[in-house]
Structure to design on (347 residues):
């Protein structure tokens, strides 16, 4: 652990967790759409949704695995039609992120969920990007976009999506891979990721959420990703753990997501502590906060309580989030200085 972590009284740890600067690197913007906003957009866009009320929709948020969540998540996203809708969704998230002292967010979006319904790529990306620009100017939060390919669709469709997005190449920093994991291994997308690499895009992929350690290996060796999203199944493979530690491959871990999708039976069973103990660059993230019961600080506070983590791990997780981000070294150093200041204030 870092030598510069000052001692923190246990009763001050929750306030420190909330106030410390942090980066969020695993947030699906469609998963930040709260039921109230879903209903407001459905009304203003004349889209019908198969739920009678906000409460009725919230009651449906009882998931048994990833697929049971994805079915409802894609239904919720069907209300997004205009550029203003995409702006409003991202802005609502960024305001919550700022309140949680998130200083930087790398935001996933799923264009195929929208283009399949006739929404233009331009509408999606411009709306989201405008919110990112405004967040920097008025909230002091830096934010960038990562385009995710849906892995339950074909690689051919991923290539078409990339083509549609390339005129807006400067408005996103990388690509990812999400949706139904088991049965859709990373290698299905080897060619399109190779093309994205040639284009200078950053590469990440969901792997080892429900899928086996083998999917983490192929995400690393065949897709050549720079970070693994989730990756919690890696603890089943000691050789993989050694590889992740040696190459300092970050894992963007999402504890409340893992709990709600039954990856771990109880939050107390989560392996975040084991990942940190093994020297991995693990980070804490919210994944789909509107569906999983919590934004960044909810994830930190509930997980620290459940798995009994301490100030040294808080420091490590925040420092890891900066190290793992796709920004330049001077900015990372500036955030590390702010982290030190937050710890000094709570010592
Ligand atoms: N896993 C895979 N796909 C997703 C997720 C997730 O946790 N959230 C939104 N799309
Ligand atoms: Zn995710």
């Amino acid at each position: 652990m870092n030598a510069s972590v000052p001692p923190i009284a246990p009763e001050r740890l929750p306030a420190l967790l909330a106030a410390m600067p942090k980066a969020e690197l695993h947030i699906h913007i469609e998963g930040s759409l709260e039921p109230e906003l879903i209903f407001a957009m459905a009304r203003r866009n004349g889209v019908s949704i198969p739920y009678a009320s906000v409460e009725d929709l919230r009651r449906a948020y009882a998931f048994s695995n990833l697929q049971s969540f994805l079915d409802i998540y894609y239904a919720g996203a069907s209300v997004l039609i205009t550029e203003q809708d995409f702006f409003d969704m991202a802005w609502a998230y960024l305001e919550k992120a700022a309140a949680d002292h998130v200083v930087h967010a790398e935001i996933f979006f799923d264009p195929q969920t929208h283009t399949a319904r006739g929404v233009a790529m331009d509408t999606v990306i411009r709306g989201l990007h405008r919110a990112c620009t405004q967040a920097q100017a008025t909230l002091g939060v830096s934010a960038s976009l990562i385009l995710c390919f849906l892995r339950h669709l074909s690689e051919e469709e991923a290539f078409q999506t990339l083509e549609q997005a390339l005129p807006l190449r400067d408005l996103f920093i990388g690509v990812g891979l999400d949706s139904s994991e088991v049965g859709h291994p990373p290698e299905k997308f080897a060619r399109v990721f190779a093309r994205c690499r040639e284009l200078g895009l950053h590469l990440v992929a969901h792997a080892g959420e429900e899928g086996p350690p083998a999917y983490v290996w192929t995400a690393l060796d065949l897709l050549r990703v720079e970070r693994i999203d989730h990756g919690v199944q890696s603890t089943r493979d000691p050789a993989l753990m050694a590889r992740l530690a040696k190459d300092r491959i970050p894992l963007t871990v999402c504890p409340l997501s893992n709990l709600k999708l039954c990856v771990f039976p109880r939050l107390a069973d989560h392996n975040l502590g084991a990942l940190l103990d093994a020297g991995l660059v693990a980070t804490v993230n919210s994944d789909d906060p509107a569906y999983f019961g919590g934004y960044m600080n909810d994830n930190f506070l509930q997980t620290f309580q459940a798995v009994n983590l301490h100030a040294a791990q808080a420091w490590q997780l925040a420092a890891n989030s900066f190290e793992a981000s796709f920004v330049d070294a001077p900015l990372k150093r500036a955030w590390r200085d702010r982290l030190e200041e937050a710890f000094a204030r709570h010592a």
Remarks:
- The two ends are 17 Å apart (CA to CA).
- The chain has a mean pLDDT of 97.
